[in-house]
Every structure is written in structure tokens, then in C-alpha cells.
Specification:
Largest sheet: 2 strands, antiparallel
Strand content: 5-15%
Order of helices and strands: HHEE
Number of helices: 2
Oligomer: single chain
Mean pLDDT: 75
Distance between the termini: 45 Å
Low-confidence stretches: none
Number of strands: 2
Number of domains: 2
Length: 90
Amino acid sequence: MAPGASVARVARAHGVNANQVFAWRRQYQRGLLTPRNRATPGLLAVRLAEGGADPSGAQMPRSLSGVIQVELPTGQLRLAGAVDNLGMTA
């Protein structure tokens, strides 16, 4: 939005497509990107499921080991792959 700013440079600097920046800019100009809650975001509570159980207590199939599942108010986010060992040491 700055005078003389290049959308292509802004997009490249942040690793997004210039078309996405144009779309966000249009949404902002229409007032669609105003924050709903201006409070500072805080930390989220995290609960680890023991032994491959989902939050309801049901046992997950063995094929789903290596899954990170995030329960959101409107759905779920599931990341599958090599997530069991994140390169962290105790």
C-alpha cells in the first residue's frame, strides 16, 4: 500500500505469489481484512494424546502414526508424515 511499492517485490520478499498480494490488497481496501479482535494473541493450550489415542479416547489406527491433529472450533487440521521425531532432544 506504500506509494511506489512493487507488489512483485513485496510478494517475493515474503514468499507468496503476487496475485495473492493483489487479492489481499483488494480485500483490505474493501474493509474485509480488519481484525475482529484487537487483543494481543496469546498461547494456545496443547493436550498430548497418549499411545496414539485421539482426544475422544478412541485408539487411532496404526497407519496414522506420524500425524499431528489440531482441533479447531470449526474443524480439524491434520498434518501427516514424519512428525514423530522433530529433531528435538530431551
